[in-house]
Amino acid sequence: MELFPAIDLRGGRAVRLTQGDYDRMKVYSGDPLAVAADFYETGARNLHIVDLDGAREGRPVNRDTVAALAKLGFFTEVGGGVRDEARIEDYLSCGAGRVILGTVAVRDFDFVCRMVKKYGEQIAVGVDARDGKVAVSGWEEATAIDGIAFCERCRDVGVKTVIYTDIAKDGGLSGANLPLYQTLRAVEGLDVVASGGVSFESDVAALRDMGLYGAIIGKALYEGRLDLKTCLRLAKGEETA
What we know:
Elements: E1 2-10, E2 13-18, E3 21-29, H1 32-42, E4 46-51, H2 52-57, H3 63-70, E5 75-79, H4 85-94, E6 98-101, H5 103-107, H6 109-119, E7 123-130, E8 133-136, E9 141-146, H7 147-156, E10 161-166, H8 178-185, E11 191-195, H9 201-210, E12 214-217, H10 219-222, H11 228-235
Parallel strand pairs: 1-4, 1-12, 4-5, 5-6, 6-7, 7-10, 10-11, 11-12
Antiparallel strand pairs: 1-2, 2-3, 7-8, 8-9
Helix pairs in contact: 8-9, 9-11
Protein backbone atom coordinates (compact mmCIF):
# COMPACT_ATOMS: atom_id res chain seq x y z
CA MET A 1 0.00 0.00 0.00
CA GLU A 2 1.18 3.49 -0.82
CA LEU A 3 1.46 5.87 2.14
CA PHE A 4 0.99 9.62 1.65
CA PRO A 5 2.04 11.97 4.45
CA ALA A 6 -0.01 15.15 4.05
CA ILE A 7 0.90 18.80 3.91
CA ASP A 8 -2.11 21.10 4.03
CA LEU A 9 -1.27 24.71 3.23
CA ARG A 10 -2.87 27.87 4.52
CA GLY A 11 -1.11 31.19 4.31
CA GLY A 12 2.09 29.41 3.29
CA ARG A 13 2.14 27.37 6.51
CA ALA A 14 1.65 23.67 7.20
CA VAL A 15 -1.61 23.35 9.12
CA ARG A 16 -4.33 20.86 9.98
CA LEU A 17 -8.05 21.44 10.28
CA THR A 18 -10.51 19.44 12.37
CA GLN A 19 -13.46 18.09 10.36
CA GLY A 20 -12.74 20.61 7.63
CA ASP A 21 -13.50 23.57 9.92
CA TYR A 22 -11.32 26.54 9.02
CA ASP A 23 -11.99 28.00 12.47
CA ARG A 24 -10.51 24.87 14.07
CA MET A 25 -7.04 25.13 12.58
CA LYS A 26 -3.69 24.35 14.14
CA VAL A 27 -0.42 25.59 12.65
CA TYR A 28 2.37 23.04 12.78
CA SER A 29 5.10 24.77 10.81
CA GLY A 30 5.86 27.98 9.00
CA ASP A 31 8.24 26.06 6.74
CA PRO A 32 6.38 23.34 4.79
CA LEU A 33 9.50 22.53 2.77
CA ALA A 34 11.38 21.63 5.95
CA VAL A 35 8.47 19.39 6.97
CA ALA A 36 8.58 17.66 3.60
CA ALA A 37 12.36 17.27 3.81
CA ASP A 38 11.94 15.48 7.13
CA PHE A 39 9.36 13.17 5.54
CA TYR A 40 11.76 12.39 2.70
CA GLU A 41 14.69 11.75 5.04
CA THR A 42 12.52 9.31 6.99
CA GLY A 43 11.83 7.35 3.81
CA ALA A 44 8.56 8.71 2.44
CA ARG A 45 8.43 8.93 -1.34
CA ASN A 46 4.81 10.07 -1.74
CA LEU A 47 3.33 13.39 -0.68
CA HIS A 48 -0.27 14.61 -0.52
CA ILE A 49 -0.57 18.40 -0.84
CA VAL A 50 -3.71 20.50 -0.41
CA ASP A 51 -3.99 24.24 -0.91
CA LEU A 52 -6.68 24.92 1.70
CA ASP A 53 -6.90 28.58 0.74
CA GLY A 54 -7.34 27.52 -2.85
CA ALA A 55 -10.07 25.03 -1.97
CA ARG A 56 -12.03 27.75 -0.23
CA GLU A 57 -11.48 30.53 -2.75
CA GLY A 58 -11.56 28.49 -5.95
CA ARG A 59 -8.20 29.71 -7.19
CA PRO A 60 -4.55 28.83 -6.51
CA VAL A 61 -3.30 30.73 -3.47
CA ASN A 62 -0.25 28.76 -2.33
CA ARG A 63 0.94 27.95 -5.83
CA ASP A 64 4.61 28.80 -5.28
CA THR A 65 4.83 26.62 -2.18
CA VAL A 66 3.10 23.76 -3.99
CA ALA A 67 5.54 24.12 -6.88
CA ALA A 68 8.52 24.04 -4.53
CA LEU A 69 7.21 20.94 -2.76
CA ALA A 70 6.62 19.18 -6.08
CA LYS A 71 10.30 19.53 -6.92
CA LEU A 72 11.60 17.69 -3.84
CA GLY A 73 11.67 14.20 -5.34
CA PHE A 74 8.35 12.82 -4.12
CA PHE A 75 5.51 11.46 -6.16
CA THR A 76 3.08 14.24 -5.34
CA GLU A 77 -0.67 14.47 -5.62
CA VAL A 78 -1.95 18.05 -5.41
CA GLY A 79 -5.40 19.48 -4.87
CA GLY A 80 -7.27 22.52 -3.64
CA GLY A 81 -8.74 25.15 -5.92
CA VAL A 82 -8.07 23.35 -9.19
CA ARG A 83 -10.92 24.57 -11.39
CA ASP A 84 -9.46 24.74 -14.90
CA GLU A 85 -7.04 23.06 -17.27
CA ALA A 86 -4.45 25.81 -16.94
CA ARG A 87 -3.97 24.93 -13.27
CA ILE A 88 -3.68 21.23 -14.10
CA GLU A 89 -1.02 21.96 -16.71
CA ASP A 90 0.82 24.27 -14.32
CA TYR A 91 0.98 21.74 -11.49
CA LEU A 92 2.01 18.92 -13.82
CA SER A 93 4.73 21.11 -15.33
CA CYS A 94 5.97 21.85 -11.80
CA GLY A 95 6.49 18.13 -11.23
CA ALA A 96 3.24 16.96 -9.65
CA GLY A 97 2.45 13.35 -10.46
CA ARG A 98 -1.29 13.66 -10.04
CA VAL A 99 -3.72 16.56 -9.82
CA ILE A 100 -6.86 16.20 -7.73
CA LEU A 101 -10.18 17.59 -8.91
CA GLY A 102 -12.64 18.22 -6.11
CA THR A 103 -15.38 20.83 -6.26
CA VAL A 104 -15.14 21.16 -10.04
CA ALA A 105 -15.71 17.42 -10.41
CA VAL A 106 -19.10 17.80 -8.76
CA ARG A 107 -20.12 21.03 -10.46
CA ASP A 108 -18.84 20.27 -13.95
CA PHE A 109 -18.54 16.52 -14.45
CA ASP A 110 -18.00 16.96 -18.18
CA PHE A 111 -14.75 18.73 -17.29
CA VAL A 112 -13.61 15.59 -15.45
CA CYS A 113 -14.41 13.51 -18.51
CA ARG A 114 -12.39 15.78 -20.79
CA MET A 115 -9.41 15.99 -18.46
CA VAL A 116 -9.27 12.22 -17.88
CA LYS A 117 -9.41 11.63 -21.60
CA LYS A 118 -6.48 14.04 -22.10
CA TYR A 119 -4.31 13.39 -19.02
CA GLY A 120 -5.26 9.86 -18.02
CA GLU A 121 -3.98 8.67 -14.65
CA GLN A 122 -2.53 12.08 -13.87
CA ILE A 123 -6.06 13.13 -12.93
CA ALA A 124 -7.59 12.01 -9.64
CA VAL A 125 -10.86 12.98 -8.01
CA GLY A 126 -11.15 13.99 -4.39
CA VAL A 127 -14.44 12.82 -2.90
CA ASP A 128 -15.03 14.49 0.45
CA ALA A 129 -18.12 13.22 2.23
CA ARG A 130 -20.03 14.08 5.36
CA ASP A 131 -22.61 11.50 6.47
CA GLY A 132 -22.09 9.76 3.14
CA LYS A 133 -22.90 12.85 1.04
CA VAL A 134 -20.37 14.78 -1.01
CA ALA A 135 -19.30 18.21 0.25
CA VAL A 136 -17.64 20.93 -1.85
CA SER A 137 -15.98 24.36 -1.58
CA GLY A 138 -13.49 23.40 1.10
CA TRP A 139 -16.10 21.12 2.70
CA GLU A 140 -18.28 24.11 3.54
CA GLU A 141 -21.16 23.29 1.16
CA ALA A 142 -23.14 20.05 1.37
CA THR A 143 -24.74 18.27 -1.59
CA ALA A 144 -27.24 15.42 -1.88
CA ILE A 145 -24.81 13.29 -3.92
CA ASP A 146 -23.99 9.87 -2.51
CA GLY A 147 -20.24 9.53 -2.08
CA ILE A 148 -19.87 5.90 -3.11
CA ALA A 149 -22.15 6.31 -6.13
CA PHE A 150 -20.07 9.30 -7.19
CA CYS A 151 -16.91 7.19 -6.96
CA GLU A 152 -18.50 4.62 -9.24
CA ARG A 153 -19.49 7.35 -11.68
CA CYS A 154 -15.91 8.60 -11.75
CA ARG A 155 -14.64 5.07 -12.35
CA ASP A 156 -17.06 4.65 -15.21
CA VAL A 157 -15.59 7.61 -17.14
CA GLY A 158 -11.99 6.45 -16.68
CA VAL A 159 -10.87 8.00 -13.39
CA LYS A 160 -8.25 5.66 -11.95
CA THR A 161 -7.68 7.18 -8.49
CA VAL A 162 -10.10 8.58 -5.94
CA ILE A 163 -9.06 10.18 -2.66
CA TYR A 164 -12.01 9.60 -0.35
CA THR A 165 -12.18 11.65 2.83
CA ASP A 166 -14.63 10.94 5.62
CA ILE A 167 -14.96 14.50 6.93
CA ALA A 168 -16.43 13.42 10.27
CA LYS A 169 -13.25 11.46 10.98
CA ASP A 170 -10.76 14.00 9.63
CA GLY A 171 -8.53 15.47 12.31
CA GLY A 172 -10.42 13.69 15.08
CA LEU A 173 -7.63 11.23 15.95
CA SER A 174 -10.30 8.58 16.54
CA GLY A 175 -9.44 6.14 13.78
CA ALA A 176 -10.42 5.65 10.16
CA ASN A 177 -13.87 4.56 8.99
CA LEU A 178 -12.73 1.06 8.09
CA PRO A 179 -16.14 -0.33 7.03
CA LEU A 180 -16.45 2.53 4.54
CA TYR A 181 -13.12 1.71 2.92
CA GLN A 182 -13.98 -1.98 2.84
CA THR A 183 -17.05 -1.02 0.80
CA LEU A 184 -15.02 1.22 -1.50
CA ARG A 185 -12.42 -1.52 -1.97
CA ALA A 186 -15.14 -3.53 -3.69
CA VAL A 187 -15.50 -0.90 -6.44
CA GLU A 188 -13.64 -2.72 -9.20
CA GLY A 189 -11.17 -0.82 -11.33
CA LEU A 190 -10.66 2.04 -8.87
CA ASP A 191 -7.60 2.86 -6.78
CA VAL A 192 -8.88 4.28 -3.49
CA VAL A 193 -6.77 6.44 -1.19
CA ALA A 194 -8.17 6.53 2.36
CA SER A 195 -8.17 9.95 3.98
CA GLY A 196 -9.52 11.13 7.29
CA GLY A 197 -8.87 9.84 10.78
CA VAL A 198 -6.01 7.42 10.12
CA SER A 199 -4.68 7.60 13.66
CA PHE A 200 -3.35 4.21 14.73
CA GLU A 201 -0.89 1.66 13.45
CA SER A 202 -3.84 -0.74 13.34
CA ASP A 203 -5.58 1.59 10.87
CA VAL A 204 -2.61 1.43 8.51
CA ALA A 205 -2.39 -2.35 8.84
CA ALA A 206 -6.14 -2.82 8.32
CA LEU A 207 -6.23 -0.66 5.21
CA ARG A 208 -3.20 -2.50 3.86
CA ASP A 209 -4.80 -5.87 4.54
CA MET A 210 -7.95 -4.78 2.69
CA GLY A 211 -5.78 -4.34 -0.39
CA LEU A 212 -6.45 -0.62 -0.52
CA TYR A 213 -4.23 1.30 -2.92
CA GLY A 214 -3.21 4.05 -0.52
CA ALA A 215 -3.72 5.95 2.74
CA ILE A 216 -3.05 9.50 3.87
CA ILE A 217 -1.71 10.30 7.32
CA GLY A 218 -1.94 13.83 8.64
CA LYS A 219 -2.81 15.07 12.09
CA ALA A 220 -1.80 11.88 13.91
CA LEU A 221 1.64 12.21 12.34
CA TYR A 222 2.00 15.87 13.30
CA GLU A 223 0.78 15.20 16.84
CA GLY A 224 3.27 12.38 17.31
CA ARG A 225 0.58 9.70 17.56
CA LEU A 226 2.05 7.91 14.54
CA ASP A 227 5.69 7.29 13.68
CA LEU A 228 6.27 7.77 9.97
CA LYS A 229 9.02 5.17 9.66
CA THR A 230 6.86 2.54 11.35
CA CYS A 231 3.87 3.42 9.20
CA LEU A 232 5.94 3.10 6.04
CA ARG A 233 7.05 -0.36 7.10
CA LEU A 234 3.46 -1.32 7.93
CA ALA A 235 2.23 -0.08 4.56
CA LYS A 236 4.85 -2.22 2.82
CA GLY A 237 3.94 -5.27 4.88
CA GLU A 238 7.32 -5.30 6.59
CA GLU A 239 5.72 -4.99 10.04
CA THR A 240 2.49 -6.02 11.73
CA ALA A 241 0.49 -3.82 14.08
